[in-house]
C-alpha cells in the first residue's frame, strides 16, 4: 500500500472512531437540555401510558414523554430522553384508551376510532390543567398528583 493510501485509511478510521463515543454532544444552534424525570399519580396510584407534555410559557421548545408502569416519564425535546430546555412550562397530562374503531375488513369503509380519557379532561389542556414546572439545572424531577 502506498503512503497516500495508508494516510487515507488512517484519516478515514479516525473520522469513524470520532463518532463512536457514548456521550451526547451539543448540536450547534440547539439549546442545552437537562434530563427531566416526571412521576404521575392519580388517586395515589402510578399512571402508566400517560402522555406528558411540557409546553413553554413564552416560546421555545416543548418536551414530551410517555409514562411507564411505575408512572415515570423521561422527557424528550430533540432526541429520545434528552430532557428539557431550562425554563418555565405549563404541563398537560393525558391518558386515552381506544374503546371502538378500526376494522379488520379491508373492504369495509374506514371507521373513526373512539377514545375514552382515563384521567380528568382538565389535565389535557394547558389552559385548564393548573400544572406548571420550572426546569433548572438543579430542578429536574417533578411529581404530579392528579385529582378529580
TrEMBL record:
Domain of life per record: Bacteria
InterPro entries in the cross-refs: Ig-like_fold
Protein name: Carboxypeptidase regulatory-like domain-containing protein
Source organism: Thermogutta terrifontis
Amino acid at each position: 500500500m502506498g503512503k497516500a493510501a495508508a494516510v487515507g485509511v488512517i484519516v478515514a478510521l479516525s473520522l469513524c472512531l470520532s463518532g463512536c463515543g457514548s456521550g451526547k454532544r451539543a448540536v450547534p444552534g440547539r439549546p442545552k437540555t437537562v434530563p427531566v424525570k416526571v412521576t404521575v399519580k392519580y388517586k395515589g396510584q402510578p399512571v402508566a401510558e400517560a402522555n406528558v407534555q411540557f409546553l413553554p410559557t413564552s416560546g421555545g421548545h416543548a418536551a414530551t414523554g410517555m409514562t411507564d408502569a411505575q408512572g415515570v416519564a423521561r422527557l424528550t425535546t430533540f432526541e429520545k430522553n434528552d430532557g428539557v430546555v431550562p425554563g418555565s412550562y405549563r404541563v398537560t397530562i393525558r391518558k386515552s384508551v381506544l374503546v371502538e374503531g378500526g376494522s379488520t375488513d379491508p373492504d369495509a369503509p374506514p371507521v373513526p376510532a373512539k377514545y375514552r380519557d382515563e384521567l380528568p379532561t382538565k389535565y389535557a389542556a394547558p389552559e385548564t390543567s393548573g400544572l406548571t414546572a420550572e426546569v433548572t439545572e438543579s430542578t429536574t424531577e417533578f411529581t404530579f398528583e392528579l385529582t378529580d
